[in-house]
């Protein structure tokens, strides 16, 4: 990912927070010339056993994900192969009317992280079930209502044979946080203020990130 110097993340915690808050990743691999590339949207979490409270640089962290085994992408994956996971955070269109200056050009403020790593396919049914359970726990805590999965474990065991789970060791990561840093402070403040008052959730979340800028 090309990241101009203006838009590099202020520190690594921004990317960790982006992944935790926006865990639906796009997994991308080249595949073979006749059938690739492959791209699959799937949920991803930090491995609770090794990286559950991860807050530092992403290389070295372990992530867990899963997809449908019927997906041709699963068959194309091999343990030891390289995978790219992309995560998209808050983003929104910036109209030149917010700048209150001329000339001006519209743009799009956005946040994203591209995470590269090595894949390990999980073959064990019990380990796959563990990935599904860990994913439920993580998402219920962060995004759900505290649903208790205990009564559904037998159902989980019925569907787990169709689940392709994997472990992903991060080898590199790049974050782009395009939040009007190239603009003069007064213009950036106007963009942040406009977004913060919007009814659009994405704009308000983008404004929140802009408020964290140094």
Structure description:
- The protein has 214 residues and is α+β, with helices and mostly antiparallel strands.
- It has six helices and six strands.
- It has helices spanning 13-21, 72-76, 125-142, 153-159, 185-196, 201-212; strands spanning 24-29, 38-46, 62-68, 82-94, 107-122, 163-178.
- It has a six-stranded antiparallel β-barrel.
- It is elongated, with a radius of gyration of 20 Å.
- The protein starts with 12 loop residues before the first helix and ends with a helix.
* Residue share in β-strands: 25-35%
Output the number of helix runs. Answer: 6
Helical amount: 25-40%
Pick out the low-confidence regions. Answer: none
* Secondary-structure class: alpha+beta
The major beta sheet can be summarized as: 6 strands, antiparallel, barrel
Measured distance between first and last alpha carbons: 23 Å
Question: Rounded to an integer, what's the Rg over CA atoms?
Answer: 20 Å
């Amino acid at each position: 990912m090309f990241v101009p110097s203006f838009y590099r993340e202020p520190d690594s915690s921004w990317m960790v927070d982006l992944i935790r808050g926006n865990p639906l990743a796009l997994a991308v691999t080249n595949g073979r010339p006749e059938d690739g590339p492959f791209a699959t949207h799937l949920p991803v979490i930090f491995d609770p056993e090794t990286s559950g409270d991860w807050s530092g640089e992403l290389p070295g962290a372990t992530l867990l994900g899963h997809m449908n085994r019927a997906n041709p992408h699963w068959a194309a994956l091999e343990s030891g192969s390289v995978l790219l996971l992309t995560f998209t955070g808050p983003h929104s269109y910036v109209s030149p009317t917010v700048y209150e200056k001329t000339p001006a050009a519209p743009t799009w403020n956005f946040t994203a992280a591209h995470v590269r790593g090595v894949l390990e396919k999980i073959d064990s049914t019990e380990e796959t079930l563990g990935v599904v359970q860990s994913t439920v726990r993580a998402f219920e805590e962060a995004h759900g209502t505290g649903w208790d999965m205990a009564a559904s474990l037998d159902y989980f065991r019925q569907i787990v044979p169709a689940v392709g789970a994997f472990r992903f060791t991060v080898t590199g990561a790049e974050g782009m946080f395009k939040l009007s840093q190239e603009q003069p402070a007064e213009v950036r403040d106007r963009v942040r203020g406009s977004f913060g008052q919007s009814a659009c959730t994405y704009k308000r979340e983008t404004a929140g990130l802009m408020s964290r800028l140094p």
